[in-house]
Amino acid sequence: MITGAQIRMARGCLRWSVRELAEKTNLGISTIQRMEAIEDVPSASAKNLAAIQSVFESAGIEFIDENGGGPGVRLKK
Length: 77
What we know:
The chain is 52% helix and 10% strand. Helix 2 (18-25) crosses helix 3. The chain has a single domain (4-75), classed as Orthogonal Bundle (434 Repressor (Amino-terminal Domain)). Strands 1-2 form a two-stranded antiparallel ribbon. It is mainly alpha-helical. The protein has helices at residues 4-14, 18-25, 29-36, 46-58; strands spanning 61-64, 72-75. It contains four helices and two strands; from the N terminus they run ααααββ.
């Protein structure tokens, strides 16, 4: 599962606003803001987290699991 910090980082990489992510995922702005406020995995529905992850991955984001240095994101080549 992705973390709130990864959602913020992914948005930053793509230079998307919260509003843009909300529109692309069909989620509310406040829902995304609540998820991003959590450093760890947000207590959101798995469906909502999967929607966010899917949209980001389609846009070229790759999620990096915690491997001793903490979870992160990067742009795919």
